[in-house]
Design brief:
The protein is α+β, with helices and mostly antiparallel strands and about 140 residues long. The protein is about 35% helix and about 20% strand. It has a five-stranded antiparallel β-sheet with strand order 4-3-2-1-5, with no helix packed on it. The protein starts with 5 loop residues before the first strand and ends with a helix.
């Protein structure tokens, strides 16, 4: 599944899959417990495909960062937990993205990326190339 169908909703734990749009917002399904909920347009929602991580030279799309973590972990869960210490998280992220901007990428951001990666990996949603192929097939 492409990251443009995966959402982070402010104030709600975990990630959500976009199911369908409604007149006043949309229906989202939790990747944690598969419960569906109605989300209004007034809620603060982030689409994962639009999130980027600051580096010293450019902004790297989240998809690329998740792909680098996947390569480092050989497709498995991360070797660290999102609950590990700030120093461990920063050290791990430095291995994944050596030139990330330490002034603009906070430990809480790294926690989210690690947590999101593990959630997407658990739900087998890290194959971005296949999702891209599916999308281009639908367009043709």
């Amino acid at each position: 599944m492409a990251l443009d169908k995966v959402l982070a909703i402010a104030g709600k734990p975990g990630l959500y899959k976009l199911v369908t749009q409604t007149r006043g917002g949309f229906i989202a399904e939790s990747l944690i417990d598969n419960r569906r909920m109605s989300v209004g347009i007034q809620q603060n929602v982030s689409i994962l495909s639009e999130i980027a991580i600051y580096t010293l030279t450019e902004e790297v799309p989240l998809k690329d960062v998740l792909s680098k973590i996947k390569d480092k972990e050989k497709g498995a869960q991360t070797s660290i937990s999102h609950k590990d210490s700030k120093d461990k998280l920063e050290e791990y992220f430095f291995e994944v993205l050596p030139d990330y901007d330490e002034d603009r990428v906070y430990p809480s951001d790294i926690k989210k990326v690690v947590q999101w990666y593990n959630m997407l990996q658990k739900n087998d949603m890290l194959d971005f190339d296949a999702a891209k192929t599916e999308t281009s097939d639908e367009e043709e």
